[in-house]
Amino acid sequence: MNxxxxxxxxxxxxxxxxxxxxxxxxxxxxxxAELAKALCNRTSSLGADGILYVMxxxxxxxxxxxxxxxxxxxxxxxxxxxxxxxxxxxxxxVEEALIETMKANLEVKNEAEIYPNIPTYLVEISPVSFQTxxxxxxxxTDTLLNEKIPGLHxxxxxxxxxxxxPHLITIVNKDVLDSNVQEILSKYVNGANEYFPDGVxxxxxxxxxxxxxxxxxxxxxxxxxxxxGTAMSASTLVSILNGYNExxxxxxxxxxxxxxxxxxxxxxxxxxIDLIGNATYVFHAVVSIDWDAIESFEVGEKTYYExxxxxxxxxxxDAKKYVEDHLK
Length: 328
Description:
23% helix, alpha+beta, single chain, 2 domains, globular, Diaminopimelate Epimerase, Chain A, domain 1
């Protein structure tokens, strides 16, 4: 079987897009998971954080399903949906679109460049819930807002929220970032534990200056990643709730993959977060697979987007320097 793929990335968080609108592939649920585990394997000639299946929708312009590299399905992916936004808008030749995801239909649109000559898209991140049952998180309170979790860490204060992916966020200084605390803690809450039965994305956030934060995320089903779009969105909201930033103002969010920009709306006791950032293509290729030996897939000639790579590297270099100059 031949499958067309587009490798892309949002903030260095890379994915393989499989277009089921233009090509009527017939995948079973097991096959979707097996494809993700095989094609995303970093030891292969492709490698990625996940697969983005772009599918027809009865209620929106397109439907997105996200499968992580371990074969698990995510309810949302902020960096991934930017890539899908570009793909769908270019496919349909429109500037705005509505994308169906597992929990909500989300607005996306082409946006002013976040950096010169970088394809940039705005995506809606919602719904936002602070109810611990929505993560789920097993604690004695209905919400966890800037509080300790007994037995998890004796000093750190955590906020738990779903956007709709589950996130556990704490604001830390450089010393904590440089330690192994995040790795130890993240592996614990994503293994057998008493708090998060389904695991959770864990983000450590540092305040760089007013209007700028740095976020490092251990992503459920992936591990440490260059960036996680929903984590950056949720972290922006947490920085606002802690008084470091403000609603209705842009916040630049730096990460190991580059930077994005977030904007938090608050109306009728509901939050909506706009995530604005790159949607960069890496290459197109055709993959030949045999379902009986899927790990031995073959990749045809790759058509690279070299100029996009060069320009994004400039953004990354500038972002890295900014973080080095401001992280304390």
